[in-house]
Each structure stands twice: as structure tokens, then as C-alpha cells.
Amino acid sequence: MVLARIATATRTSLRTQLLRAYSSPGSLQFRRYSVRSVAGAAEQDVVEGTPTRPAETEGLSRGASAASTSASPESELLEDGEIPPEVAHLFGTLRDEAVRRLDEFQPIHLFSLCWAYSTARLMDEELQKQIVGAALRLGEKRDSQPRREDRGRKAKAEESTADSPADSPPADSPPVDSPADSPANSPEATESALPGDPGQENPGQENTMRHLPCVLAETDHWAALYKPPFWQVSVDSKEAAKAAAVGPFEEEEEGDADDDGPEAERRRPRMQMWIKQNPSLQHPIAADQTEAHGLLHRLDIQTSGILLCAKTYVGAYWLRLQWCSYAVDKEYLCLVHGWVDRDVREIHKRIRIEKKKAPNSRRTISTHCTVSDSGKPSYTELVTLAHLKAMPAESDGGETEKRYSLVVLKLHTGRTHQIRVHMKSIGHPLVCDIKYAEELFPSDRMWCPRNFLHTYHLGFEDVPKDEVESSSSATANSVDIYCPLPQDLLDVLAGLTPADEESKAPLAALLTGKSGDMRSFEHYYSECYGDAQPGGSEGCR
Predict the structure, then answer these.
(1) Residue 300 a catalytic site member
(2) pLDDT confidence of 138, banded at 50, 70, 90?
(3) Per-residue pLDDT reduced to its tens digit, 356-394
(4) Burial class (CB in 10 A: 0-12, 13-18, 19+), 172
(5) For a disulfide at 313, which of 139, 289, 402, 484, Cβ 3.0-4.6 Å?
């Protein structure tokens, strides 16, 4: 029983011995150091305050996946940049025993093990290979097990075969929903189709108002969904909550009751219910509450954009390991008050999370976060795409133009309300944020329907065809999914004008509403700052 909890021990040990003992309050500071992976990868320097993206190595190779040559924002180091000997010895002992008993681990233990060693930058090629292999084997085993309802339906069908007409469909044929009854084929779903949706005739063309979810892209193992605003993403079981708590995005919140503003009284539809009812997503994991119906991460209730959902257990375990290895690129667009200084490119500020529970219940009814020395290390990169302006309405009684900034952001940690709290902390709260910019909300609400926050890009490595491919970066297939701004946010931007020449092109590209006109954070960074690597600039602490 103790051995089965080795991974959990590594997670606890990492937090207590590395973060608590060697981090100074109120800062998220990186020291210059170089580290060489067990596999012999090239040395990677990390400049103070600058966690660079590592070079691709074996295995989970995208982004910051090569944890053995990267610095995690959660791992603060000693002055000399070395892991304390006692911590390294503990991790070495746990590693050897974990590898020996890896087949006894459940998925949650594998995720914890991957997260802990990736965060400590102690993940070597062999351990990574072993963890990935064990996870894929568990996934294949679960995928091969027929669903209970399928077995029951087949048994009943076989019993009635003798009495069935000759022209009846085969006994093991799945029930067929009529197009009229299918959520994916309803008029509303058709109207809400996004560029890239298989049901849309000309992907990347006109962007229309979207009220319902739809599929942006999919393979046999996963589907990238569009989450509309005011749709809730929640985890309904303790097992799923534990799985979701492993990794750098563990605390993203599905939203709380006081975060909806005027929309608080409306019925909030749930993404997991839409998944369960969508014919194209009817796979065993979609009905598995312990796996959150395949949902791999969460978004605030008012946030729109890309939501990744697994269609198989292999896909779920592979993608969750990437999250635990800091290998997923998750990028946002937001509109904030004021003109953000273009020299500000990163925010390192700890975030304290305070949750209010319902009486005699564990249910969270309110969440509020603040920048605090007692909070958890949090790291956000940003690029200011455009400075915008708008003339005030007559009701405002003023003639001074109002200033706004269109900002693209990349998260390296996933604290609750991280973007909203970090942007407020530098004096630029999000537009229409009733929780963190309450004094500005009444006037914002007159022209913006919700928090101006949208997940526009998700990048990761696709599920490998076999175990050999899973350990080779040469055959890795990178996936980049883009989701244009929905019509409600496009309408908001259309009412603003560029404040300078530099702001015209980025605004015009986004206003096309086409995914082909969107770029990754790294691309925007390079355009704004030349060849400098993201993170190598002034930051806010």
C-alpha cells in the first residue's frame, strides 16, 4: 500500500522541501543555472527571471516537456541553482522503487510521478519512457473493455434474434439517432459552427455568433471543442477532481455563483452534458464520471474558447501526462483597461485563493483571489498587441477618450483567475470584470457583454501510434488548434480604433474572425520584440 503511494509522496516532498524551504515570500525568482539531462541533451541556460523553453528531447517533447532541461515556474532554486542533495537523494530512491513497481500504479499515481519529477527537473529519458509506457498500457486496457450498456444491449438483442424479421439490422448494431434529434445536427448547432468544424462546408470563412458548443478538430483519441461563454465546465467526482489537480493547471476554476454578474440567474448549461448527448463523442470515456467525461481542463464560466476532451483512455492519459510535463501551450486573448506598457512582458506575482463555502456544505459559492506574499507562485507571459481608444458615451459626461489594450497571454501556472488577478495587479483589469474591476463594471457592461477573455490557441503533441513513437521526438506530431474570437467579442473590438500605426495590423487580423489569421504567442512575441526569446525582458513582481 505504501509503494502504491510513492508518486503522491514525491509530490508532497517536492512542495515541502523545494518550494517551502527554498523560496522567498512574494517572489517567483529564477537563478542562472545550467543542467544536463541524463540522456546527454545540450545545456540550457535560464537567465534570472527567465524560464526559457527547452530544446526538444526524447519523449514528450513539445514546449517545456523536456523537464530535465527546463525550469518550471513552480520550482524555485537555491542561489547556486542546484537541487539540495537530500532532496535529490530522496527523489533518486523513490525513482528506482517506482520504476520497479510501475505496473502497480494507477493513472493518478503516474500523473503525480510525472508532475513531480518534471517540476523538479529530474525527469530522465528512461523514467519518462517507463511512465508513458505504463500509462498507455492502462489506457489500452480500459479502451478494450466493452461498456456495460453495450454488453446488456447485445445480450438482449441476441435473445430476440429468433423473433426478428429477416430485414432487421444486425443484433449488435448501435441505435441510430435521427438527424432531427441529434444535437450536432440541430439548426442551433449548425448556426454555431466554428471554422474547422467538420460540419462546416468552408472552414475558416465567416465567423458567426456562437451559442452552442461544437467540434473544432478531432482525431480517434481526442476532440477540441468550442466552449461558449456561460457554459460551465465542472468535475463531478472526487476521482476526477484528484486527477485534475495534478499538473501546472490544477486550479483553473469553473466559475462561481457571484462571477456571472447580470447573468447569474440564467440557467448554466454544462459541457459534460453536451458531450454525453453528442453522437460524434459517444465513447466509453464520455460516460465515465470518474474521468470527468473526458474533459482534460477547465475554463472560467465566462471565458470562451478551446476545451480539450479525450475520446479514449489512451488519449486522456497521454494528454494528461503532457499537462503534467508542462508540454501544453495554452494561450489567451484579453482586452484590458488602459495602455499596457509594451516593455512589460511577464508577471511574477504570488496569488492567494480564498473560497467561501455554502453553510454546512463543501460546495464553493464564491472564490476571490489576491496578490499576496502568502500565495502560490504564479507566472504569466504577455504581449501587448494593440493600444486602442474609444470616445466616451454622452452619458459619461466627459470628453476624454477611453484607453484599452488588446493583450495575448501565455500561462505557465494555472491559478484560479490568474489572468484577471495578474492584469489587475499591474493596473490594467479586464474589461467587464465584475469581480476584480467592480467600479468599472457598470460602464463596461453597456458595451461589452462579459469578461473579455478567450482561449484562442492550444498546442500539444498528438497521441503516438505505438510505444516506440511515444519515446521518439523525431516522429512527434505537433498539433496547433486556433479558435477565432466569437461574434460578441468581435463586436466589442469593432467599436474601438487603433491608437497608433503599430496597433492597426494586429487588430485588423483578429477582426477577420478567421483562424488562419491567428498566430501563436511565440509568433506575436517575435514580431513585437524581434528574435528575443519569450521571458527575456522586464517583468512585474
Answers:
(1) yes
(2) very high
(3) 877 777 776 788 999 999 999 999 999 999 999 997 665
(4) exposed
(5) 139
